[in-house]
Amino acid sequence: MTHRPTHEPLRPVRPHPVEALPENQPPDPGQVDPAVLSALLHRHGWQRRGGPAGRYGRWTPPGPGSGGTSLLVPESRAFPDSDDLLGEALVALSRSGSPSARDVLIALAVPSDEIHWWRDVPAGPAGAAPWPVEDQLRTAARQMLLAGALATRGRAGYHGARHRRPAAASLESVLVGAAPGGHRLTAFVPVETERPLAVRLHQALYSVREAVDYRRATGGMEAFDAAVQAGVSHELTEALVALVRGTEGARIAVEWAPAAGVPEGCAAPAEAVEFSPGDLPFLREAGARYLREEPSVPVRITGTVVRMRRSGPRGAGAVRLRVLAGAEVPHVRMTLDEESYRTAGHAHLVGLPVLVHGRLESRGGFRRLTDVSEVAPVQVDEAERDRLMKSLQENLDFFEEACSGD
């Protein structure tokens, strides 16, 4: 089985289409806090143009060409016409052609922390971005979100394949919207399920900025070592390199959902964290250091044999296990001596997993087990054994390899 290197694009997170709202209908006015709506309009560039203080405000969309579009948004529900004004504002927002109107509606429908990325790159004809520019932005943003998701599951200078599958699965709930021009991207991270991701990424970005500044000033790498506890990792530095490379600079900002408030220990408002091309050598140096120095991990893995191979009828052979317990990776590879190889083959043929002691090596992404000892079958209940045997029958293509030494 081949594994995707960490620098390759990940599976795209779910886009943020208008269809995320049922039939483009606005949210129920009874479920919308007027103060939250005003805060979201301000966040997304709408301008307040007046209105009676303490009663309502008149808001117009950002950018040229807004025409006569405006919203009357009550400041509270204290007045009899507040609910009517709020309902009319939400309907007008759902019919607006402004991209920011869609973002406000999404944030109302799914209370979310927002992560914004900006890249300063030359614009193409008529302000359009060349295809590679927008693709680079999306790829870097996906890598950064994954780095944040990995950091919520454990602190490590290099995660490799550990926790990668559940971390990637957690991004399924993230909505993504791109601004025209390909220079800006916004991720809507649901507060209810994924706020730890936004908090961890916020803290990690500040820590890596401080570590880069410390490296510039002193020449030391100590700050990068300490930053691991804040969520900084090889994966995050690689994402930052991908974001900044080919630009005149890049920024990342996290804005907290108005309905949920500011998380404990985080700044409000959180200033954007900026990186420049001059930071690239230090980010690459730190990433290489994390990759090089992450230690191997002693483990006791329970897994099922899914592949066996050796060059002849006798001697040592290579085995691959599907991990059931003991490590945060889906599969591991290892080389076993003749006796252990035979034990693994017999366990597989009768539908039993094996228990293996060894060290999970960081080289190769924590996918290889070394110093293997104590390979032994594990007894399981009949239902689990039947399931394993069914899996065996569905994958008979490697029988000749498993049986080659018997």
What would you say this structure looks like, in words?
The protein is α+β, with helices and mostly antiparallel strands. It has twelve helices and 13 strands. It has helices at residues 34-43, 82-95, 99-109, 131-151, 164-170, 191-218, 222-227, 234-244, 280-293, 338-349, 382-393, 399-402; strands at residues 47-48, 56-60, 71-74, 112-119, 175-178, 184-190, 250-255, 273-275, 297-309, 317-325, 331-336, 354-361, 368-377. It has a five-stranded antiparallel β-sheet, with helices on both faces. A five-stranded mixed β-barrel has the order 9-10-11-13-12. Helix 1 (34-43) runs antiparallel to helix 3. The two termini are 25 Å apart.
Which structural category do the helix and sheet elements fall into?
alpha+beta
**Global morphology:** elongated
Strand content: 15-25%
Order of helices and strands, N to C? Answer: HEEEHHEHHEEHHHEEHEEEHEEHH
Strand numbers in spatial order across the main sheet: 5-6-4-7-8
Summed up, what is this model?
This protein is an alpha+beta fold.
